[in-house]
Model the fold of this input.
Amino acid sequence: MVGPEQDRPFALLQTQRFVERLKQLGYEVDPEFDFEMTILTPVPGVVSTVPDSAYDIEYKTTRQKAWRNLLVCAVNAALEQKLFTLRPGDNRFPDKMRRGEVFDFVLPNGLPARGSVSDAGFNELSVHAAVNPKGDMVRAFNGGFDAGDAFGTTWVERERGAWMQSSDSSFNCRKGLLDHLAALQVEPMGYGDRGRVIM
Done:
């Protein structure tokens, strides 16, 4: 039984997997096919996960991969704990003067982590995450090593689609932890992981 519409999870339409499956079934595939480019008119229940300006964003360095993985884990954990959904305005945490709702989670490699989510306005969310957290310093925008052995921030866009805004410049990580975070295998739960920071 599926829950109410507002609790339905988002699912990613992954072009590469779809194309591979079509080939397995013997269909000819247009090499230019891409879900994001195919859906040009709004379809109820379908949202974009890649803004036009994000096709050149790649996570190549160990640092970029570590930031991406930590924040995807944090956003996924907040979604699993039903603190918000990817629908515009659907916040389910008390707004404590934008101080941030703190939540705990465990990374796929077993390390403890703590996140913080707050309303950033314009249907965006501010999400922070710390590994081996120290108190509630994860709430601070520049928590750095005061928040934990690794600390990063992102914003989650929900107005024009559903994606994380890529901002690895707001990332601190102890050297011994960097490779462990970069090696995590984690996929976004219905949102994109590449987007320009919106100012």
Residues 82 and 125 are 14 Å apart (CA to CA). The radius of gyration is 17 Å. The chain has two domains: 11-46, 52-182. Residues 11-46 form one domain.
